[in-house]
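Fold this complex.
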Amino acid sequence: MYTAPDGEQYFIIDGHIHYWDASKANQKNRHGEEFVNCFHDYQKGLSPDEYIWGDEKFRNYGRETMLDDLFVDGYDDMAIFQPTYLKDFYHEGFNTTERCDLIKQEFPERFILNGSFDPRDGAAALDYIDYLVDDYQIAGIKLYTAEWKGQSRGWSLNDDWSYRCLEHCQKRGIKNIHIHKGPTILPLDRDAFDVKDVDHVATDFPELNFIVEHIGLPRLDDFCWIATQEPNVYGGMAVAMPFVHARPKYFGRIMSELLFWIGEDRILFGSDYAIWHPRWLVEQFVDFQIPTEMVEDTGIQLTPDIKRKVLGENAARLYGIDIEAKKKALAGDAFATAEVA
Amino acid sequence: MNAPARRAQAWAAIGEVTDPELDQSVTELGFITEFEVDAIRGDVSVAYRLPTYWCAANFAFMMGNDMAERLGELAWTQHVSVRLLDHFYADEINRGLADNASFQDTCGHEASGGLTELRATFRYKAFMSRQERLMGWLLAHGVSRETLVAWTVADLAAYTLTDARGLHLRERYLAMRRSHTPGDFSGQGYRGDGREIAFVTAAGKAIAADDLDAHRRHIQSIRMNSEFNATLCSRVLAVRQREVASTDSAAGQALAR
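Structure:
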């Protein structure tokens, strides 16, 4: 829970967090080092100085650091694990469902656990979805279309097995599909950040919700267009959030566009922890106002009610969380007491 | 042409190449990490490094290919070598650059065609972004909407500007307005006589003063997208440069000399 200086209160569901191990011992090859290095450069490039970590800590920050950062120093009430496997780069994977589940088991009220599948596994991917649903009770799926696998350097949501996997998710009662569009390699002659494949799956799977991480940037216009047409498409703010600090005016334009095109009910906060720390993101987002000249131009404001939706209420609706009941359930736990102390 | 002049000419030639996503010169962006010229023999050797190991492979290839082409066009160059460093696709791209292979040949089964269409897309985006920046600046500095939409290329070029920012934005827009036919961003040569309308839509049509707001809103979204990548890239690049600064501080400055 975050209480702003003006007394407004915000229940925070952090829609995008990682619990990774990118230590040297877990790195399989140079790509593993370069992958985490890129994340670390993002942290260094877009965080306030006091939130920049050293190399060793960033590669493997561990359980206690994460729990403190999210729930004691940070204002998160709940957080959603979005696994990213990268088994071609890391022996045990970068951030797997199995690894996140260790923490989720310890603090089941605090975490939502999502799984992942790789359509290139073919029929085995369907079995893997079953295993995640049966053994881990996953609440959603996170997909990373730029993941390498053997000779393959990425896949498309429109691929045949991707469709079969999504059908299977639907059958098994999974509703929320988070899509991370990294720069894909294939095909090399196309725009690497294209989000148009989201349009097709959103039309063909109307019962599923598609949360497009980093709101389709750098193809925000395409994303807004698709989301305007498809009521089941949402925007995840991971990676866009730190712009509130790095480029506030630009962040104002992003928020204006999103609110204009897709509205206040389909935008979800995410820190992308451990790249960025939720404490300063929440403080600065709550403090943020769209610049006056932009408001005069568009009439769009970012009110406390809208911020409450983005920071928690929208995710609560997607994941079936009753915020008032949840507040009571969390009131006496280890983190609530730590915050008071 | 003496050796320093050839060296300067080669540096200027690669400086014409832009990062397709950011629409900024590769030399201004600090991508060039090695620049060797043997002016007598006509050998030029360039190495470039992008902000991250994961920058899109097609952009990486385009920049290398464009640099090799620009250098190859100079009258005195004999052997040109362009190499990409620290990139996940560096081996394949460098093989392609060394053999002067097409993008399709370089990538084999991993590409499904040439880069013509992609290049045209990025030229279109660059054209619109440059237009949007210049229009915004002119409108904020006293040019009326009616005047703006009626200007010919010659009018725009003749308009008195003293501010450095305004001059820069006009130069960049005119460079594209004069070399491309809007509506056809395939890169075919364009010969205008200055009497064409200066500010046109992507299809090459004049804009009515009443439609200017809608037009600007549309092209602003193109600029917003490139600004996201531009910010990420420049921040990450700054981190990288700070970190290498301690080991080879003079290298970057020495390149341009």
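The longest strand of chain A covers residues 13-17.
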